[in-house]
Amino acid sequence: MGTQTSYPLDVGSIRADFPILDRQIGGDIENAGAGSDGDTPLVYLDNAATSQTPKAVVESLVEYYYEYNANVHRGIHHLSQEASVAYEDAHDRVAEFIGAAGREEIIFTKNTTESMNLVAYAWGLQELGPGDTVVLSEMEHHASLVTWQQIAKRTGAEIEYIRVDEAGYLDMEHADELIDDSTAMVSVVHISNTLGTVTPVETLADMVHAHDGYLFVDGAQSAPTQPVDVEAMDTDFFAFSGHKMCGPTGIGVLYGKESILSSMQPYLYGGEMIRSVTYEDSSWEELPWKFEAGTPVIAQAIGLHAAIDYLEDIGMDAVRTHEAELASYAYEELSQFEDIEVYGPPGTDRGGLVAFNLEGVHAHDLSTILNDYGVAIRAGDHCTQPLHDKLGVPASTRASFYIYNTREEVDALVDAVDGARQLFR
Ligand code: 7TS
User: Which site in 10, 118, 146, 420 is 20 to 30 Å from 261, CA atoms measured?
Assistant: First the structure.
């Protein structure tokens, strides 16, 4: 196995920013309690589910709570002013990070799932009806698939699925057939969290705009791992989660083109999102506040700002190169075993994750053995049940990589998988 270590980024110093990576863990999942230690070094390969948090982000949260914790927008006092400025700055920072025009196009939500529900409810319920289609792909996460299914049921719209071919690529000829004048929305995952496939979203934007429909790109796996430019992509909506990109849990982002967001009704009603209220009626605040009802995710937004600073300091191009190298190395190494099936396209033009199955062994059993080796991966359907049905398996095992992972950790994964193979044979 190769152990050559030339990285596009300084993994050694990055790892020092993540104290959790020094943990030694125990093999006994059933009896694991918080902080329970063992003697096996942690190999954390579950980054597509959630990434670890660097000191700089934790410190930004501590600073907020210790020094300027206050509610935003309403206080005329000093702390509220500081918190408000930091909260608004976080919108600006996110806008800059993804190439949006400004803070009016950046709405903070709880996560990618809520960003999708916001558009599905606020735009979908208002705009969709019988005769309209919503075009998804066969590799959508449930966050998109389930949400659009429900909105379609309520509005009489129809869902259509763009095929994923044998190799794991989106069938763009099929996309061209499906997208027509009835298409009101194309909602696709940017990088599949199961196959690692990268969707050609620019082409889909052209296709759907030619028919006056909209494009929603699920960036949950792309925003953390590669440079994103929503204007170059020409997408109408884009969503992602802070917790998959070194940020805290509890914050997601919805980007929307200002012209579309302006015409949409609010999703949640209450304080903070109104301009004026009488006993008879109410009017709405400007963007993005119209969509941020109630006390917003202040600490989380400050944490996300720090996470973006951290990632951009490393450089998103370097993050992408690192991810692609580790994923293609893992893909090649795992493919060498004749009893292992690896899913999704090979090569480096893919996301930083690899899903696979060991013949005759359930993914959950495999993951239990891997845990004995200290290797943390995800086993299950990864919220892509219909895609697993299509692959003909109930579940898969998935290793996903991030900035602090090394080739040695890929070797540890492959050794552990090999150990499991011997055990089960
Ligand atoms: N879309 C994609 C492509 C995802 O990978 C996920 C989370 C979501 C949407 C939803 O994100 P959330 O932050 O709202 O939960 N994916 C995974 C995963 O693959 N394992 O755990 C969560």
Answer: 146
